[in-house]
Every structure is written in structure tokens, then in C-alpha cells.
Amino acid sequence: MPSTAASPCPALEEEPRALAVLELTLRAFRSYREARLTVDRSPVVLTGPNGSGKTNLLEAISLLAPGRGLRRAGGGDLQCRTSAEPWAVAAHVETSAGIVALGTGRDPEGSPTGRRVLRVDGRPVSSQQALGEHVAVAWITPTMDRLLAEGPGARRKLLDRLAASFDPAHGGRVQRYERALRERLRLLRDGVADTTWLGALENDLAQTGVAIAAARRHLVRQLQAVMPETTSAFPQAELALEGLAEEALDRTPALVVEDHFREALASARREDAAQGLSSIGPHRSDLRVTHPVHACLAAHCSTGEQKALLVAIVLAYTRVVTRTRGLAPLVLLDDIAAHLDSLRRAALFEELTSLGVQAWLTGTDPEVFAPFVAAGAQPWTVDSRGLMADTLYR
Amino acid sequence: MADLSPLDHLTRLLARVPGLGPRSARRAVLCLVKRRETLLLPLMEALKTVAEEVRVCSVCGNLDTRDPCALCTNPKRERHVLCVVEDVADLWALERSHAFHGLYHVLGGTLSALEGIRPEDLRLDSLTRRVGEGEIQEVILALNATLEGQTTAHYVSERLAPLGVKVSRLAQGLPVGGELDYLDDGTLTAALNARRTWS
Ligand SMILES: Nc1ncnc2c1ncn2[C@@H]1O[C@H](COP(=O)(O)OP(=O)(O)OP(=O)(O)O)[C@@H](O)[C@H]1O
Ligand SMILES: [Mg+2]
Ligand SMILES: [Zn+2]
């Protein structure tokens, strides 16, 4: 694929307000054999037909932060099927520490599905946490459309992902907690009545579980606090965290909550064994989202209203990150115009502009983004010939 | 696999060694064949010796050509403190740090219901027997900060509680999920010196 690097570089003397990708290079990544995109700090709009590679490009950006990216794909899926080269994503990102070169890709030595390798300023780093020190990314994709209507699992995942960008250890705690749950359940199902072993696992569950609950509670409180700060007509979301441990933390010191949780686990053994499930703990918590105007649960809202609530959460997260890290995160809004009416779209564009974030928006219809582009967003076209800075607009 | 060439056979075997992939195994084989006199034959001798002479110490679980091992029989080691480790690699890491002068006990793994590793699969009975003999006054649990490591540490401390021995663990500050074997000597020494009583 040809690559075109044509975009005027704005004055970068001003202190950055937001993380910004300034250059993105893809090799053998999904549908891209080779592509480079050079942009400035302002938001980017990518338009093009279905299947042209818009989501793939956002996915590449999402891999600049810890985790498995916005499709949660394995390395094998990321590899371009028509290229023999190992896939790679490289970017120059403007951070508070200046411009850093970040890279990730398949280890040419390792297996195609193996762990991805990471580089910061040309040096290999072993842990994804090193990426998290530089980059925070939030995204909304069409696969999240039903997130507010469905079961609580996806909402917990969203919360945990957001919480991990403030405390990189959070992700590890969630994994450890889930593993401890599986260990305990295996013992209960196998009828291993070793109370010492069960007690040891429950001890870990209590410690890790309360730490997870505390991090989620802290995050939700911060999101709640900044929610009213919206400057536009964009709807807000009312958030509440439901969970025994989370709620107990409102009234009780964490160490006491741990003790209670540990005791509750011990007394639930018989029942958990009978039911074959883990009945208590933060893995059963839920983030309740309600529409402040209708005062109704998000699940009962219309599709567009749900989308707007989700956007409101991401905008609030953006404010919290800006406050705590000094710099707004990258925001990826895939296929965002779908379901939003023109009023809400206008409010969203206004909101993104006032936040000063480098948002990456995609859609099939360039028309929809015209007001945003008029306000300074950078239009790019993606089609079968590759990526092109869209000069038609300017 | 009868029709595998000897070189392929060797490559496949080497590729099963931790840290070696198929690609590096091929490189290793090529290198061995090219350096028959200086590398291949000495390696063959060394492998043979290890295969024939190295055994598991029946007292502590260490690997040595003697049973009991050189550490267990060394009169200079302090006999009142015992360090419990998961694996021989952890014992080696502690020995490299020169921070510990007592005796060891290698559990040979950590508890994991999911992986089917139960208390009876670990060297736990011999641990309680050793501690029960009365000479040991302190047991240091130098287990990894992983879920399995800490679950096992908790389990062992409960098992030792009735014996009235002092049980301590490495100080916190070890990275969670960090494995002892990968820690540098300074970190290990600091963790050992700042160990605290199990509570
Ligand atoms: N590993 C891969 N190798 C080659 N092509 C791939 C790979 N993974 C995905 N693709 C292709 O990439 C194309 C573009 O996907 P992408 O999801 O980015 O499109 P899009 O522009 O977001 O489309 P839409 O408007 O429908 O959302 C798809 O046709 C898909 O088959
Ligand atoms: Mg798409
Ligand atoms: Zn020994």
C-alpha cells in the first residue's frame, strides 16, 4: 500500500495538553502491508468505505497502551495475512516528557502467536507497564454498543481497564483474583475439604478483592465528580457502583472489610460447592449507569441514548486522566456517528475540541464530520489505495 | 519419529529446553557439530556425568552428587535457621546472593488446584519432620509473590504453627508475581534482612 505523509506540521512550541500521535507507521499489520500517517495534535477523522481499514488503524493505536488492544485480539490475528514480515506498529507520541518513540510487534524470533515485543525509544522493554507510563488510551467501538444493556461482566471489564491506566498493578490484581477464584472453586468442586488450603486462597482473595474494589470505587467517585464539568449540551451519565465490598468501603476501613470478606468466603464454602460457583466478591459487582434526565437505567434507554451515556463515561475519564496525569489520553471513537443524532454529534465535537484531546474518529460518511473538520479536525481518507490526507475539505 | 535424522532429533530435544526455541535449537546444534572436539564431546561427557551422578538430596531436596548434599553436610552452615524455597533455582539464587548461611528445604513446587499439585506432591512431610526434630528455631518462607507462592506460604505457616517454631517470610517489596530467580542479589539480600514474622 502506498503511504502518503502530507499534513502541515503546526507549531509544537506550546505546552501539550493532550497525548498526541504525531506519526504512525504500520508494517504487515492486519490489512496494512505498509503505511505511514503523519498528523498534528488536533483530532483526526478517518473516513472510507466498509472494510477499508479504519478500525484496523484505531486498533494499531490502541496497542500503544498496555493490554490487547480494542479488539482484544491475539498476535496471530494482527499479522497481515498477505505479508511474510512480522507485524509492527511504531509511533512518535507527544507526551509530557517530550516526543517518545513507541513500538510493538511480533517477535521475529518467537512464534506468530507469541507475546508481542515492546520498544520505548528504541530500547526493548519487558513489561507492558512501560507503555502505560507513556500512553493512556480510551476507546468506544461498535462492539461496546450493548455494554450498558447486557450483563455486568463487560461493565466491570471497562471499569478495570480504565482503573488500570491509573494503577498499572490493577490489571495484575484482577488476574490474580480470578485465578484464586478458580483455584478455590476447583477445590470445592473436587470436594477437597482442606480448610488450610481453602483458607490460604480465601486470604489472598480477600486482600486482592478489597484492593480491586477500592480502586474501582475510587475511579467511579472521580468520574462522578467531573461528570458535571461538561461544557456542551452533551448528556451526562449517572454512575453508581454496586457490590458488597465496594459499598462496605464507604463505611468501614479496608482492613475490616478484608476480614469480613474472608469470613464470608469461609462460610459460603458449602453453598458454593453445592452450586458450583463463587457467590460473593467483587467479581459480582456492577456499574449501574442511569440516564439523569429520564432517571431510567441505561438498559432501558434507546440505542442512541446508550451510546451517548458511554461517550459521557469516556469524556469523564478523559477529564480525570487530564487532572491526574497532566495530559489528556488518546481517545478512539470507532464508528461513532452511528446512532448519534446531529445535535449530539455537534455537542460531542464541541466537547472534544474544548478538552483539547487528540480524538480519532471513524465513519463511512465524510459529510457527517464536516463541522468537526471545519473546527480543525484533520480529515483522512482510507480506501483500497491506502491512507490519504484528505485535501478536499481544506 | 523413527525416521527423524539424528540432527533433527537433537534439535527437537534441545528445543524443549526452557529458553530455547526451535530456531535457537537449530543454531545450537549447528554450533555443536562444528565444534566437535571443543564443545560436542565435552558436553556429552558432562551430560553423562550429570545423568549418572546428580541426585536429589533426601534431606532438603537440593541437587548434588552426594546425598545428603554438600549444603546439608557443610559444618559451617547455621543449623538453626531453615529457608523454604519452591525450587532448586531459588536456592541457587539465594546462594548467589551470599546473604543466607543456614539450611534449605526445597518444596519442589507450589500448591495449585488447577494444575493438580496437592500438598502430598510437595516435600511438606519431610519439612514438618525436620522442624519437629527441634534444632531449627526459625523458618524463613522465601516463596514467590505469585498467588501460588503466597498460598503455599500461608499453607506451610499454618502447618508449622503447632510446632512452635518462628516462621518469617521475605519482606514485602518483592514485586508481585516476581520470581525469586529473576531478582538481583541486592534485592534478595534486602528482602532477606527485612523479613518479618508471619501473621
Ligand atoms: N490479519 C489480517 N490480514 C489481512 N487483512 C485483514 C486482517 N485482519 C483484518 N483484515 C481485513 O481488514 C479489512 C478492514 O477491516 P476494518 O475493520 O479496519 O474495516 P473498517 O474500515 O473499519 O470497516 P467498517 O466501515 O465496516 O467498520 C477487512 O476486510 C478484513 O478482512
Ligand atoms: Mg470499522
Ligand atoms: Zn541437602
What labels would you give this structure?
heterodimer; A: 394 residues; alpha/beta; six-stranded antiparallel β-sheet; six-stranded mixed β-sheet; 12 helices; 21% strand; B: 199 residues; Helicase, Ruva Protein, domain 3; Dna Topoisomerase Vi A Subunit, Chain: A, domain 2; five-stranded mixed β-sheet; two-stranded antiparallel ribbon; 7 strands; 43% helix; binds adenosine-5'-triphosphate; binds magnesium ion; binds zinc ion
User: Which two chains have the most extensive interface, and how many residues on each?
Assistant: A-B, 23 and 20 residues
Radius of gyration of chain B: 20 Å
C-alpha geometry of chain B:
elongated
**Estimated structural class of chain A:** alpha/beta
Order of helices and strands of chain A: EEEHHEEEEHEHHHEHHHEEHEHEHEE
Which class of the largest domain in chain B in CATH terms?
Alpha Beta
Q: Which residues of chain A form runs of ≥5 with pLDDT under 50?
A: 1-9
The rounded Rg of chain A comes to 22 Å
**What fraction of the residues of chain B are assigned to beta strands by DSSP?**
5-15%
Average pLDDT number of chain A: 91
User: What's the CATH architecture name of the largest domain in chain B?
Assistant: 3-Layer(aba) Sandwich
Broad shape of chain A: globular
Q: What is the number of beta strands of chain B? A: 7
Present the secondary structure layout.
The complex is a heterodimer of chains A (394) and B (199).
Chain A: E1 20-29, E2 32-38, E3 44-47, H1 54-62, H2 75-78, E4 88-95, E5 98-106, E6 116-120, E7 123-125, H3 129-134, E8 137-140, H4 152-164, H5 169-189, H6 195-226, E9 238-242, H7 244-251, H8 254-267, H9 269-275, E10 286-291, E11 296-297, H10 303-325, E12 330-333, H11 342-355, E13 359-363, H12 370-374, E14 378-383, E15 386-389
Parallel strand pairs in A: 3-13, 3-14, 8-12, 12-13
Antiparallel strand pairs in A: 1-2, 1-4, 4-5, 5-6, 6-7, 9-10, 10-11, 14-15
Helix pairs in contact in A: 4-5, 4-6, 5-6, 6-7, 6-8, 6-10, 10-11
Chain B: H1 6-14, H2 22-34, H3 36-53, E1 55-56, E2 63-64, H4 70-73, E3 81-85, H5 88-97, E4 103-106, H6 125-132, E5 138-141, H7 147-160, E6 166-169, H8 185-193, E7 196-197
Bound molecules: adenosine-5'-triphosphate, magnesium ion (MG) and zinc ion (ZN).
Residues 30-31, 48, 50-56, 77, 79-81, 335, 364 of chain A line the site of adenosine-5'-triphosphate.
